[in-house]
User: Which sequence fits this backbone?
C-alpha cells in the first residue's frame, strides 16, 4: 500500500446561481480590480489515502466525491492524486 495525497476541488456548475461568487466579483470590482468575470467560489478538500496504486486512489477518491464530497446535481469536482 502507498500513501497518496489527494486534492479535491469542488466548484458550482456553470449556469448554477453562485451568490458567493457574485459577491466576490462585486467586491473585487469595488476595490478597483476591473475585468473580473464569472467568479465561482468553491472548496478545496485535502486528505491522505492508502491505496495499492494511483489508479485505485483516483477511483476511490472520485467515488467519495460522487457519494459525499460534491453534490452531483449542482457541483463539479476535480481530483489530483500525488504520491
Assistant:
Amino acid at each position: 500500500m502507498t500513501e497518496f495525497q489527494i486534492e479535491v476541488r469542488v466548484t458550482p456548475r456553470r449556469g448554477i446561481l453562485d451568490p458567493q461568487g457574485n459577491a466576490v466579483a462585486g467586491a473585487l470590482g469595488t476595490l478597483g480590480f476591473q475585468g473580473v468575470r464569472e467568479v465561482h467560489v468553491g472548496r478545496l478538500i485535502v486528505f491522505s489515502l492508502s491505496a495499492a496504486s494511483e489508479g485505485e486512489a483516483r477511483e476511490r477518491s472520485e467515488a467519495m466525491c460522487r457519494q459525499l464530497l460534491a453534490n452531483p446535481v449542482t457541483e463539479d469536482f476535480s481530483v489530483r492524486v500525488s504520491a
Observations:
- Residues 54-69 form the longest helix (16 residues).
- The beta strands are 2-12, 43-51, 75-82.
